[in-house]
């Protein structure tokens, strides 16, 4: 049984880590951009951000004044049990969010859409969001918090099978150029693309691709992996760099996730994470251990399974 007190303590620690500490994979990608960027203003912004990240870590303060909208991704291993059950887990995550808002501190960004009322703690109706996934083996629970900007950096278009790869390229470029010219995202950033699924699932896949995969990871389908590389290169050749200034470093990486969709369509979403790529993960065990890491390990072969039943690699190897 996993202690609810341990879950809450770990969740609070994750909120601070996400707000203050840049993940190593993103930091390495940004440093590569700093080495290759030729635009003067773009180079200045990247260098200033690298210095800001070091200052934030040293001072234990949030790396950006706008700390985004905190959200949670929870992955249950099949045999995991939580003290008090799933309702107690959700209550712990809401308490951790409220407590971290005061303690880190985080900017209280959550308000009612009409009345603009708030509780000064980033909690409210459907806030923070909590998404779930599952794993077929184990007794652990993974908690991942993501602090993503909540205003811009996302777009959606219903493409059709006849649009093909060329249509994907066109929408990708339209979106990035629009974001850069209108100041609708903070670049350079990890770009996530959702292809297929229902309309809502398409948006979910794109956001998760941007927020829950590490820089340098590639989709297991080699053709999709090749498209990720192509779009990353394409995004860095449109003449825009950091924060939309002239340059060549708009995209730290490009990640694509796909889902089966209606036969008549090919929905696509595009999401840019943030120049402050804020995420943190911990795996919590029933013996009281909590192991922190920066790779959410969200997308697995189990999650991407295309068949009705799941056959684990262990069972297939035994045959």
From TrEMBL:
Pfam families: Fumerase (PF05681). Keywords: 4Fe-4S, Iron, Iron-sulfur, Lyase, Metal-binding. InterPro entries: Class-I_Fumarase/Tartrate_DH, Fe-S_hydro-lyase_TtdA-typ_cat. Residues 10-282 form the Fe-S hydro-lyase tartrate dehydratase alpha-type catalytic domain. Belongs to the class-I fumarase family. This is Fumarate hydratase. It comes from Acidiphilium iwatense.
């Amino acid at each position: 049984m996993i202690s609810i007190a341990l879950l809450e303590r770990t969740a609070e620690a994750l909120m601070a880590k996400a707000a203050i500490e840049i993940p190593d994979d993103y930091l390495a990608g940004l440093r590569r951009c700093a080495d290759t960027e030729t635009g003067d203003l773009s180079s200045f912004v990247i260098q200033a951000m690298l210095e800001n990240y070091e200052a934030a870590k040293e001072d234990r303060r949030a790396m950006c004044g706008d700390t985004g909208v905190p959200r949670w991704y929870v992955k249950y291993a099949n045999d995991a049990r939580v003290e008090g059950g799933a309702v107690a887990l959700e209550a712990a995550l809401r308490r951790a969010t409220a407590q971290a808002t005061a303690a880190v501190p985080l900017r209280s960004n959550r308000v009612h859409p009409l009345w603009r009322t708030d509780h000064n703690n980033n909690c409210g109706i459907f806030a923070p969001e909590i998404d779930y996934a599952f794993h077929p083996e184990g007794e652990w629970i993974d908690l991942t918090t993501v602090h993503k900007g909540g205003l811009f950096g996302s777009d959606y278009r219903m493409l059709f099978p006849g649009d093909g790869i060329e249509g994907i390229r066109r929408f990708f470029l339209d979106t990035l150029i629009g974001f850069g010219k209108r100041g609708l995202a903070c670049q350079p950033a990890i770009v996530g693309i959702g292809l297929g699924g229902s309309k809502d699932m398409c948006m979910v896949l794109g956001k998760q691709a941007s927020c829950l995969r590490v820089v340098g990871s590639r989709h297991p389908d080699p053709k999709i992996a090749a498209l990720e590389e192509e779009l990353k290169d394409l995004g860095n050749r449109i003449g825009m760099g950091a924060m939309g200034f002239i340059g060549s470093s708009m995209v730290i990486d490009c990640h694509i996730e796909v889902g089966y969709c209606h036969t008549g369509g090919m929905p696509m979403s595009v999401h840019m994470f943030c120049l402050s790529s804020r995420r943190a993960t911990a795996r919590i065990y029933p013996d009281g251990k909590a192991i922190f890491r920066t790779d959410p390990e969200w997308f697995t072969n189990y999650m991407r399974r295309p068949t009705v039943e799941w056959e684990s690699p262990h069972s297939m190897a035994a045959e």
